[in-house]
Amino acid sequence: MKRRKKKKSLAFRIWAILLSILLLIGFGLLIYQVVKMNFVPSRLMIPVSMALALVALIFVFLINFFTNHTPSKIFLSLLVICLVFVSGMGNYYVYKTSHMIEKVTTNEGKVKNIVSVIALTNSNIQDITDLSTSNKVAVLKSIDTYGTKKSIKDVCKQFDVEKKSELPFTIDSANSVQEAVNSLYNEDVDAIIINETYRTNIKEIESFSDFDENTKVIYQTVYYTEAKNDALAVSDITNEPFSILISGNDTYGDVGELSRSDVNMVVTINPLTSTVLLTSIPRDTYMPTYCDATETCVIGAMDKITHTGIYGINTTQRTVENFLDMEINYTFRANFSSVIDIVDALGGVDIYVEEGMAVSTFYADHTLEGVTEGWNHLDGKRALAYARERHAYLDGDNQRVRNQQQVLMAIFEKATSTDIITKYASLLDALSKAFETNLTTNEITDLIKFQIQAMPEWKFESYQITGYGDMLNCAALGSEASVTVPYDESIRIAQEKIRAVLDGKSSDTVEDTLDATISEGALSSEEIDAQVQADLYAYGYGYY
């Protein structure tokens, strides 16, 4: 009987030692990860670490020296197992958080560019080498000349020649993307050389909406350029106001792929006053394009802001900085897939639709159910469609901007609510592939510490640039397209509101005088006519 008790006692001691080792490893690793990640405020770091260590040591002591009876052995064993599980989950979440922050703040330094040689689907040309002396190939004369040169040089290698003049086929020049595609459709040429970033632009032209089905790629040139996107960092992100450019690409999949910038929003944050101002620039806003000398944009050329995305986020940033007469500290780039993944990871978001703003079916995606007046719970696809919708509204692109701001604030509210506890892991998975930023890991962890320590009640304010519609030449297309010419007064108001927030004031202190300016006759009759004509075009046929 005594031997049996001794065996049971020995077995429990081994069991207690095993649990103790697991508990110490779990809590020790948790303390190490918390210290390494550095997201706990400095004044709390030592107390938190000591508290975790003390909890582990107390239970190790209890399970090894205060378990004389079976009930206490069972009770303490269960408690220690729970603590081992909790420490394991804590380690898992801290690691995933650290991994997510590291991933989104690590820039590869290279941008992938793809230039395609494209022929009609019913063409007998199956490969680049099928082109002969009887064939013509159209290239863009003054648009994306760098990419075109790269492609032609690559094609020369396929024919084992050194110069463009030695190629067996004839090269024609096109003044615009639309002209090049039109010559292909009319069979004036047998193929065209086009950068893949223009594909979406092409498909939005009504007569070329079947471009994907009606054409085929017979050869592609892939090359990489430097992804210049340096941050203008502030010295203390928790104690100084700063601005972030949010650029939303109109693509699915890889967030690093160059494409049009469908969403352009400057977020101005003043941590001292807990004020966040969202300044939205509609995608078709017409302005001069700016970029660094090493990039391929035509500096000073007029275009709409969405087209700057095809040159990279640095061009979008430089253009917005010039437009708003300000410096942007950081950038944040996402795409369509980002919105879907993040909203779904949060379990959906809640959007309030004002009276008269219900949409039975989204034009942006007619397969989805629209929204009704009042509160609507939207999954990822419907949230994206709501943020993209413009044709269902009389106010068109302006209402779409309001929807985008609404979705962004709904995501923020859901992500900072108590519901996030059960969805944290899935949110981290979504965030790790949803965006790129030039904020550093330390700056993000400083913001997390600031949120934990100060618990600020953020005040959200918003403004959007407005203007009138017109049909004007766009540099990226080399042809006319529907644009929104911004009112000078709207630009001035946006600039002053941003400066107000940076100076520690509310943007509401800046009076919105735009309506009064327009009613006083700021618009000429020609401008009003142009606005009406452009609106008719936009709602009847869509935007380029």
Briefly characterize the structure:
The protein has 544 residues and is an alpha+beta fold.
Descriptive overview:
The protein has 544 residues and is an alpha+beta fold. The protein has 16 helices and 19 strands. The chain has helices at 2-37, 42-65, 70-104, 145-158, 177-185, 199-203, 211-214, 313-324, 336-345, 380-388, 396-415, 420-432, 441-454, 488-502, 514-522, 525-541; strands at residues 110-120, 136-140, 170-174, 191-195, 215-226, 242-249, 261-270, 275-280, 286-288, 302-304, 330-335, 349-353, 359-361, 369-371, 374-378, 435-437, 459-464, 467-474, 479-486. It has a six-stranded mixed beta sheet with strand order 16-11-6-7-8-17, sandwiched between helices. β2, α4 (145-158) and β3 form a beta-alpha-beta unit. The model is unreliable at 519-544 (pLDDT under 50).
List the helices and strands and how they pair.
Blueprint: H1 2-37, H2 42-65, H3 70-104, E1 110-120, E2 136-140, H4 145-158, E3 170-174, H5 177-185, E4 191-195, H6 199-203, H7 211-214, E5 215-226, E6 242-249, E7 261-270, E8 275-280, E9 286-288, E10 302-304, H8 313-324, E11 330-335, H9 336-345, E12 349-353, E13 359-361, E14 369-371, E15 374-378, H10 380-388, H11 396-415, H12 420-432, E16 435-437, H13 441-454, E17 459-464, E18 467-474, E19 479-486, H14 488-502, H15 514-522, H16 525-541
Parallel strand pairs: 2-3, 2-4, 6-11, 8-17
Antiparallel strand pairs: 1-4, 1-5, 6-7, 7-8, 9-10, 11-16, 12-15, 13-14, 18-19
